[in-house]
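writing this on my phone so excuse typos. first protein, seq and then structure
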Amino acid sequence: MTTDRPRTYFKPGRPMTVNTVPDPALLTFHRRLPGYAPTPLVYAPHLAAALGVRDAWVKNEADRLGLPAYKILGASWAVYRELETRYGPFAPWTTLEELALQLQPHLPLTLVTATDGNHGRAVARMARWLALEAHVLVPEDMVPVRIQAIEAEGAKVDVVHGTYDDAVAAAARRADHRHLVISDTAWDGYTRVPGWVVEGYGTIFREIDQQLADQGGQQPDVVAAQMGVGSLAMAAVQHYRAPARATQVVGVEPIRAACVLRSLEAGELTEVPGPHASIMAGLNCGNTSPLAWPSLQGGLSASVAISDAQAEDAMRLLARDGVVSGESGAAGAGGLLAVCVGDDTEANRARLAITPASTVLVISTEGATDPEAYARIVKAGTGEARPAADQRS
């Protein structure tokens, strides 16, 4: 039974250590994409005060390679690796135009995917860069502005009657030798491409390490990562649960699409049936990716399910620190606020070893992908979360 009450699951015992070796070609590949530059790492004193910690950092993915979300990192790498696997090896190249020329003998090719918004637009952008076709399937509750953004990339968009998970199933059925499915979630017999999506997200964390070193910041004690199907959180676990790191990783998802939290509680993959009615549209997923599941089950320190109101509070708070963060983008900050401000604050902080000397990191995964909704939400409330210190006796 679905409840609107925020929930938190803490992993019993210590999270596992993950031994993952990043692909050395990944960052070189991303640097070849048009307009590549590391996204800003923003020092966030208002967020730090609200959480009752010394330092808070926000990785701001509001403008990544000309798109308003981080998804292009995983989509571009997965598209490249899948094309290379099927049609390579490619001759040396330095621009996407040179790569596109090598694909011409194999045309026509269509990239197919399902999306709640950002991943589909990223796949469509990669198709446009490589002179390929794109076919994107979206759930029926997708807001028009996000559909229009995908269509503006030159993609064909079909609305599927049902949820995001229904769109995933519909996309999978379109796979053939001329239609390459580029999904960020896995299913039985389909794990290669989602694995490359997760690997592509690793550039975010490599940038953060360098930016913290450059700005004199210490490595985070706690990292919050949004969870839809779990791919970004899997990438965070792979990076921060590596040997010689002791960072706690907290996954955050909407209450009405808390498939990871439900699975953790059950000890096995568990579906949350739709409809998944949350403003955190990019996280409205009823099934955890089976590829991500082992990493999430073993490597997460906690899983937090938050309400739309908590996401909105986080959007307004991040705006005070100069970060434009959409509904899904602010979810990570909302999850940490749910842990550190409110019910069971002392016990929650103790479980994650959060102290006034801690450093936290959140990934703002998107900008204002629905500008009208963003403006309405940020202007709607003048109240803000009180500092965690004010909540403790």
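second protein below, same order as before
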Amino acid sequence: MDPIRNPYAPGAGQRPPELAGRDTELSTFDVVLERVARGRPERSMVLTGLRGVGKTVLLNALRGAAVRRGWGTGKLEARPDQTLRRPLAGALHQAVRELGHPSAEESDQVLGVLRAFVEREAGADAKLRDRWSPGIEVPAARGRADSGDIEIDLVELLTDVGGLAADVGKGVAVFIDEMQDLGPADVSALCAAVHEIGQQGLPVIVVGAGLPHLPAVLSASKSYSERLFRYARIDRLTTEAANRALAAPAAEEDAEFTPDGLAAMYRATGGYPYFIQAYGKTVWDLAPRSPITAEDVEVAAPEAEAELAVGFFGSRYERATPAERDYLRAMADAAAQLAPLAEPASDQPDTGARPAVETVESVATSDVAAVLGKKPQSLSPARDALMKKGLIYSGERGRISFTVPHFGRYLRGQD
């Protein structure tokens, strides 16, 4: 097959040629935008899921929908080593510019508040290099969003931004990726601000994306957070959607998969969007001709797995210390002891490829300790460090899971 015409895109956050299986989320967001624009009460949104399920891609698609409606938008990626003020100020600055308010005076007033909001972090005596320089020419406002209390300041800032959007009959949407990495104070402030602007009926929404434990992070900050957001669990694709993600781009290049080729691809990828793109790219490059068959998938699978082992799995594994790697391997072994890898479905041909989907999604911390022959309490430092690094998460008390699908299988394949 011609590699130049290869349609698949296994990039981080890169939109695939066919965004399959996300129609429900896209249509739901269209309703949210329309209701907010009409002054109707509506909740902000939170997307959750494992890594590789396409949360960032979907987040970008939702932002595109808001831009097409003339909304002001801004996006940021939360980091555990950074507070919210600077990245949020940058996102809101872009949103205000996109609104295109006809009154320069009104816009400048809000931009002055925005500048005061972010400069409050540096402090009045900060050196010039530590001050934020976003291209805002107006001076910082005083007495608004500059108290130093992030909760008070964020409520005031979003209130002013929402008022500016309401003046022109539009809305503002802030998109936050890796939302679980926000600090506790920032999470609390964000929830309080979303609550306040919702009560005021202002056209401002927050759309967050993060790992499966993000709802628990929000709930721990504010008990009412479960009512602030519309939660959407983003999971692997159904067989039909996965087939469409493969077949539609191939058809655009005058190629196709055989039915057994599609079945083999689903067994290899488990329906996870990133793996679909990664396997699709490798299978296309190695297949001699169209149609692509199950045999082509079997031949290409080792190379696809090798690339994933280096770029997708290996890069994460290398971030762990030796003690943390022992913990990760013990998690994988505990999962294998509890439930073996899934057998091929009876209605799908056995191509000889290893099944990709594991039946165990989480393991008990006590089982991990048993594998290592240690007490669970002695492993707490390694577990907590892995959680901070985003390699594992706790969906419920006493249980842990990998944030990356197929990570257990990868670990069991290591020496």
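The beta strands are 44-48, 72-77, 172-177, 204-210, 229-233, 363-364, 392-396, 399-402. thats all i got for now
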